[in-house]
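Morning F.,

Quick status update on the modeling queue. The single chain you submitted on Monday has been processed. Sequence for confirmation:
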Amino acid sequence: MKGAWPHMDGAGSRGGGAPQVRLTRAAPPLVRGGFRECGVIVYTLPMTSKAESPPRAVVRHVDLRYFAIVLLPIAIFAMEGVITDHMMPRAVLIPPDIVNMDHPWLEIAGRYRFLAASWFFGAFAVLAAALVVRTLLRPLSVQTRVVSVGTWLFVIALALLPTVTGDDAGPPTYRWIGSEVFETALSQGTLAGCAGPDDRWLLGRCGPLPAVTLFNRVLDIINFLAGLGIGALIVGMILCLNRGRAASVEDEAAVLADNFKQMRQQLYLSSLVLTLGMFFATSWMHWPMPMVTGDARSAYGTLILSTALFTGTYFTLLILSFYLPVAVLLDGRARDLARRKGRSGDGEAPQDADAWLASHGLKEGVGDYLKAGFALAAPVLTAFAGGISPLQL
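C-alpha cells below.
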C-alpha cells in the first residue's frame, strides 16, 4: 500500500530492548487519534468532523434620515412644474403650413429616431433598476431595505401621476413647439392594422391620428420607465451612505473608500441614463423636422433648440439634487476619519490628513472633478448637440 506511516514494532519489546520506531508503508483509515492493529500502534492525522463555517458578512445600514434626500429631486420636479404652468404660454401658435406635404414618407424618418431613442432609454432605465436590486440583495439591515423600496415606489408613483391624471394632449413641451405643426406632420403616418380610428393595435385603440396615438402611448411607457430608472438612481445614490461595524480606523477607511467608488459609479450611470433621456426628448421634438423646409426650418429649429436647452437644464439639476448631498456627506465622513486617525497614537500627524486621505482613495483629484463636472453637464451638452446632430436632418 502507498503512504509511509510511523509505527512501533512490538518485536523489539520481546528482546527486552526499547520498542523500535520505523516507517512502514500502510494506509490506515483516517480517524481521530490512533489504534492498535496486529501489535502495531498506528498514529493518524487528526481530521475535523465538519468544515469550518465561513465568516459572516457584515450587515450594513443607512441612517433613515438620509432618505430625506429624495425630497430635493422632488423639489426640482415641482419647480419645473411651476415654471411650465405659470411662466410659459399655454400653447405656441405656429402655422401648420410650414410642413411640406409633398413628401409624406419623411414622417417615418422622425418616427424611427423616436423609437430608437425610446428603446435606448428604456433599456438603460431597466439596467439602473437591475443594479439597485443587486445592491438591495447585499447584506443590508431590514429597515434600510424596506425604506429603500418604499422610496423607490414613491418616485415611480410620482412619475406616473401625469399619465394617470392627464389626457392625450401630450406633455407641455408638445404644445410649446406647436401642437398643430406636430399633428400635421404626424397625420401623414399610419400604423399596421389601423384602417380606421376604432381599430385596435398593439397598445389600444388607433384613434383618428394613429401616429399621434403611437406617440402618446410610448410616452406613457417611457414615463413609467423614467420613474423606475430615476427612482433607482436616487435610491442607489442614497445607499452609498451605508456603513457597518468597523474594528479599526483602517477598516472604516476601506468601507468609506468603497462608498466613494460606488458614488462615482452611480454618478456616471445617472449621467448616462438622463443623457439618454435627453436624447429621447430631443428625438421626439425633432420628429416633424424632416417635413419642415424653407426659411421656416431654421426658425423652427431655434425654437426646438431653446426648448431642449430648458429640458437639459432640468435633467442636470435633477442629477445634482441627489448627487451633491451624498458627496458632501461622504467628504465630511472622510475628513472626520482623518482627524480621528491624526489624534490616534499610530497615525500620521493632523497636517498630513490630505496625504492620508489620498492614500486611502478618500480624496478627489483634479481628474475626478473634471469627470464629475462633465457627467453633470452631459444632459445640457446633449441639448446643444441635438441642434447640430443628424437628428435635425
